[in-house]
Every structure is written in structure tokens, then in C-alpha cells.
Amino acid sequence: MGQKQKTHEREVAKILFMQGFKQTEIADKLGVSKNSINKWANDGHWEVIQKNLIVSKSERLSELYEELAELNASIKSREVGMRFPLPREADTRRKIIKDISDLETKYNIGQITIIARDFTNFCKEVDFEFAKRALDFFDLFINDQIQKQKWQKEA
């Protein structure tokens, strides 16, 4: 098996793990040994990453809004006539606002995997065969998104 294929399998395994699949289920689905999945999970710190997915988008947004409020309060607390942001403050405010906008309008791989997991779990109760097909499509979609993000980082 080529290195590219092995890397692809590892990425798919990680995605499945993030969706809540057990290591044995992943090994069976991918036709890879359970020891390989366990090694990949340990080497890649998958459990830590999975726990970090739980830190929600809303928590991060809340932090950013607090930072923005503190910055604005600091600017407004100055003497009358000096209540405009200094260049460094204005730059910081623009960056915080951009981060807020990005979080509110974009999604990441973690969010996709959570939605995929929740959707396929729902579908399992209604139509198990459809859930399997939907999961296959989510796998393709997530892999596509991973490749696009890698390309964007390289550019």
C-alpha cells in the first residue's frame, strides 16, 4: 500500500473516530488492523482532539464578544474628546470583528463531523440502509473539505 493511500485511510479513520465510531468499527469499515487504528489514534491524540470539538463555537464567540466589549469600554472610559481608538486598538478591534464574522459564517471539519454523526444516528433509527449510504457521502464530503483546506493552507 502506498504512503498516499495509508495517509488517506488514516484521515478517514480520524474522521470516523471524531464522529463517535469505536476503533473496532473503524478497523472493520476500512479493512485495517485494530492495532493500526489504535496506534494512529494514540499518535494523533485523537481523544484530545475529540474533546476539543466539544468546546463549542458559541463559547468561542462569547469570549470574542467579551474581548470586544472590554476594548470598547476601555476606549469609552477616556476623557471626552479622546474616545476614539488608537491605531493599535482599531486594528485589534477589526481583527476581533473579523474573527467573530468568520465564526458566525463559516464551518469547520469538526462541525461537519458532529453534524454528520448526529444526522446518521438519526437516520439509523428511520432507515439503516440510508444511514449507511449517507455516511459514505459524508465521508466523501469531509475528505473533500480536508483536501480543500490543505490546498488553501499551502497557497
Q: What order do the helices and strands come in, and which of them pair?
A:
Elements: H1 3-18, H2 23-30, H3 34-44, H4 46-53, H5 57-76, H6 87-105, H7 109-126, H8 128-154
What labels would you give this structure?
155 residues; mainly alpha; 2 domains; 8 helices
In short:
The protein is mainly α and 155 residues long. 82% of the residues lie in helices and 0% in strands.
Structure description:
With 155 residues, the chain is mainly α. The chain has 2 domains: 3-53 and 109-154, no CATH class; 57-105. It has 8 helices and no strands. It has helices at 3-18, 23-30, 34-44, 46-53, 57-76, 87-105, 109-126, 128-154. The radius of gyration is 21 Å and the shape is elongated.
Report the uncertain regions.
Answer: none
Strand content: under 5%
Overall SS class: mainly alpha
Q: Which shape, going by the Cα principal axes? A: elongated
The beta-strand count equals 0
Specify the number of helices. 8
SSE ordering: HHHHHHHH
Largest sheet: none
Radius of gyration: 21 Å
The portion of residues assigned to helices is over 70%
Overall residue-averaged pLDDT value: 82
User: Could you state the oligomeric state of the chains shown?
Assistant: single chain
Number of domains: 2
Termini separation comes to: 29 Å
